[in-house]
Specification:
single chain; about 475 residues; alpha+beta; Beta Polymerase, domain 2; Hydrophobic Seed Protein; Hypothetical protein af1432; two-stranded antiparallel ribbon; 13 strands; about 50% helix
Length: about 475
């Protein structure tokens, strides 16, 4: 039985392995590329492990970059002028064993070894601890001392050797386990899962940047909820994002099938978009537990103002996880305004005001988030989905007509107002433009230079010069 299609291995990788063999060394492809090759999935980075020492690898190739030579890794560049697909850059790492992990992330030192099995034994999960000699044929090419191929077939994620030792060595491995459960759609081995919580002290040493990166990778999975369920069950969220935990077991009202956590999981899975948009789906209702109250009038729970409270919670969480300023602004804005509550009875001016509040550049995000939110309720949501489509149609018609939906769309700008009304730059000018926009949102025909200038002359004296101070 053929375990993989050798044609899927890039020619450049074969060239690297062949060159090392010419020089008297052994070479294998290892890691995630082997896992994906055996799964029939598209492999990303191709990594080569070799018995050659780093200095021997450097001598064997013309173009070598010592990217991580202290750990035995160099990057080899293969150039094939006859075949553009035959070249590329590939990491080549000397077979190694590892000593202690004082910092909970990286080995204090490495020891070069000659045995491929010893090298595989230091890896995290069995499905990542498989090697292939691409220059051999058939089953003889596969080196699989921990039955990683069997776990691939069983769709199980299992640690290599003693899971407690694996997680105690490197705190990131626990989070990688959660991510792989989602991205590979595997089940977590029971003993492997049980070893995560006892290793949380090591997990606490993982940098916020690495946590963020794993979250982003998990959010690219078909069902990110699988990763975040592992994080919740085994204590990872207690360390990285305790703000999310009160959602679990927080019952909702008659409009929802799930508790707040279950709804968030359904929502993030249903959300179509990039990882940052799906992050907003994950976090959109994080303010609900803090705002839940029981209404005697409706005999049900209410969550008034949860979108504002949620936005206030989300920004510091994202800052702590080192998301960029732009990403924080985007997610916080979506959480703050995710509650659409559109009805076909809305007037045109109400629709225009909604677009102003959301922002033209965030409309597609909001549509995707709102649709996921509705699908995540899983209760009589069809009418709401129809209403969302109606809102999209109405907004598209307004955009097509070029109606003013922000101060940038006004027929007169701040520079002209300053010149004609002898105004100075500052908050007062901004407030004046906002008031002009409010009137245009109500009546688009007022958006002419003449009409706006005349109205500005009337409004300007009513706005205090120290408006910023008074508003504060």
């Amino acid at each position: 039985m053929t375990l993989f299609d050798p044609k899927l291995i890039p020619p450049g990788v074969l060239a690297v392995c062949a060159r090392l063999r010419e020089k008297g060394h052994r070479a294998w492809i290892v890691g995630g590329c082997v896992r994906d090759l055996l799964r029939g999935a598209n492999a990303g980075d191709w990594d080569v492990a070799t018995s050659a020492r780093p200095e021997e690898v450097q001598k064997a190739f013309r173009r070598v970059i010592p990217t991580g030579i202290q750990h035995g890794t160099v990057t080899v560049h293969i150039h094939d002028p006859q075949n553009k697909e035959g070249g590329g850059s590939f990491e080549v790492t000397t077979l190694r064993g590892e000593t202690t992990y004082t910092d909970g992330r990286r080995p204090d030192s490495v020891v070069f070894v000659d045995d491929i099995v010893a090298d595989l034994a230091r890896r995290d999960f069995t499905v990542n601890a498989i090697a292939i000699d691409p220059l051999r044929e058939g089953d003889a090419a596969l080196i699989d001392p921990f039955d990683g191929h069997g776990d691939l077939q069983r769709r199980v994620l299992r640690a290599v050797g003693d899971p407690a030792q694996r997680f105690a060595e490197d705190g990131l491995r626990a989070l990688r386990a959660a991510r792989f459960v989602a991205s590979l759609e595997f089940e977590l081995d029971e003993a492997t899962g049980a070893a995560i919580r006892p290793a949380l002290d090591t997990y606490r040493k993982v940098s916020a940047e690495r946590v963020r990166d794993e979250w982003v990778k998990a959010l690219k999975a078909r069902a990110p909820s699988r990763a975040f369920e592992v994080m919740r069950l085994h204590g990872l969220l207690e360390v990285s994002a305790p703000e999310l935990l009160p959602q679990y077991g927080c019952d909702q009202n008659k409009w929802h099938r799930y508790d707040v956590w279950g709804h968030a999981m359904a929502c993030v899975d249903a959300c179509a978009g990039d990882p940052v948009l799906r992050l907003s789906a994950l976090l959109h209702d994080v303010g609900k537990p803090a705002t839940r109250a029981f209404s005697d009038k409706t005999q049900d729970f209410t969550f008034y103002d949860h979108e504002r409270v949620g936005a206030e919670m989300v920004d510091p969480l994202l800052a702590r996880l080192r998301f960029s300023n732009d990403e924080r602004v985007r997610v916080t804005h979506l959480v703050r305004h995710h509650l659409v509550c559109y009805e076909p009875s809305w007037s045109d001016s109400a629709v225009r005001r909604w677009v102003k509040r959301i922002g033209r550049e965030r409309l597609d995000d909001m549509y995707s988030l709102n649709e996921a939110d509705l699908r995540g309720k899983d209760r009589e949501g069809q009418a709401d989905l129809v209403a969302l489509e109606d809102l999209k149609v109405r907004v598209a018609a307004m955009l097509a007509k070029g109606e003013a939906l922000s101060t940038r769309d006004l027929a007169i700008g701040g520079k002209e107002l300053m010149e004609r009304l002898a105004m100075r730059p500052g908050p007062k000018l901004g407030v004046l433009l906002d008031r002009l926009l409010e009137e245009v949102l109500e009546e688009p025909s007022k958006n002419t230079p003449e009409s706006l200038l005349a109205r500005a002359a009337e409004l300007a004296p009513t706005i205090p010069d120290d408006v910023k101070k008074r508003q504060a």
